[in-house]
Amino acid sequence: MEFQKTWKTLPVKLRKTIALVIGSTSIVLGALLIVLPGPFTIPFVVFGLMILSLEFVWAESLLVKVKHHAKKTVPRKLRKKEKL
């Protein structure tokens, strides 16, 4: 709650700039990890969307869609069934 109160006291342009820089950097890092060897691609993208959704409505609607699709994904279904 403290963070939200402090965040809302900042000027709107500064808040949008901070959210845009941190959120887009996180999404770009997640996209780079798809190509480069490294784990944890999806958490960077989701974190970036969470930061962007603090100030941008389009990011919030995209985050809702991502959460909805993530709920449908069951890790057991992603693994191939082993043949005996």
Q: Which descriptors would you attach to this protein?
A:
single chain, 84 residues, 0% strand, globular
What does this entry look like structurally?
The chain has 84 residues and is mainly α. The protein has a domain at 38-63. Helix content is 76%, strand content 0%. It is built from 5 helices and no strands. It has helices spanning 2-9, 12-35, 41-52, 57-72, 75-78. It is globular. It starts with a helix and ends in a 6-residue tail after the last helix. The mean pLDDT is 84.
Number of strands: 0
- Distance from N terminus to C terminus (CA atoms, Å) equals 54 Å
Low-confidence runs of at least 5 consecutive residues:
none
Query: Which range best describes the helical content: under 10%, 10-25%, 25-40%, 40-55%, 55-70% or over 70%?
Result: over 70%
The radius of gyration over CA amounts to 17 Å
Strand content: under 5%
Mean pLDDT: 84
The sequence of SSEs as H and E is: HHHHH
Layout of secondary structure:
Elements: H1 2-9, H2 12-35, H3 41-52, H4 57-72, H5 75-78
Helix pairs in contact: 2-3, 3-4
Can you give me a brief rundown of this structure?
The protein has 84 residues and is mainly alpha-helical.
